[in-house]
Design brief:
The chain has about 220 residues and is α/β, with parallel strands linked by helices. Helices cover about 40% and strands about 25% of the residues. The chain has one domain: Vaccinia Virus protein VP39 (Rossmann fold, 3-Layer(aba) Sandwich), CATH 3.40.50. Strands 3-2-1-4-5-7-6 form a seven-stranded mixed beta sheet, with helices on both faces. The structure holds S-adenosylmethionine. S-adenosylmethionine binds near residues 52, 76 and 125.
Amino acid sequence: MNDIGAHVAFLDRYYGRQRRFYDFSRRFFLFGRNRLLHALDVQPGHRVLEMGCGTARNLRKLAAMQPAAVCYGIDASSEMLLTAADGLRADGLERQVTLKRALAEEVRPGRTFGLERGFDRVFFSYSLSMMPDWRGPLQAALECLAPGGKLAIVDFWDFAGYPGWLARRLHRRLHNHHVHFEPAVLEHLRGLEKSGKAVLQLRSVARRWAYLAELTPT
Ligand SMILES: C[S@@+](CC[C@H](N)C(=O)[O-])C[C@H]1O[C@@H](n2cnc3c(N)ncnc32)[C@H](O)[C@@H]1O
């Protein structure tokens, strides 16, 4: 099995159990997700894509916030997508939200969803830190944006607002769950702004528990 195959197999094993209590448990540590949904500023008619949508917790909320938006979600784990599909059915949102099993690094509006143009909004919510190489997914997300579109990311930061021992413990715990904060992601986003390719807004959530980045290509 290659690295990607092993990654997907891990996700299905891990989430095969976790998906049953995922939405309840994650509210206690995946901070800033609602802030991201508001920051997206989704307008009627917008097409929105979530990379690594998991149980579709975010897409269900977004679809309720803006019923005239069209939402799409991809995830590598078929286990997570089972829970996501159940949730959409329960909320009667199957027509407004389309889900596909795909790797973030391979998503293309045409090939993945049969769309002729890109998305007005693309976002990652605590998924980029779980992807083995963040470069491919980030590049794919930027290429999926329609002109004038916006990319947003909420994810674990460096816990700089917490005592050192606690920050180290949190990082170790995340590492054991295959979650990694890569400072290079933020350096890359800052680089895009410095070179004039995008405008970046970077905010801290809960004393650098997480960052919320909004990137608008120029
Ligand atoms: C921590 S969960 C976050 C789920 C959701 N975004 C949320 O905010 O609740 C991370 C998700 O990313 C997915 N994922 C990890 N690597 C992926 C990849 N390379 N391509 C697509 N999805 C991936 C996992 O299967 C999982 O559902």
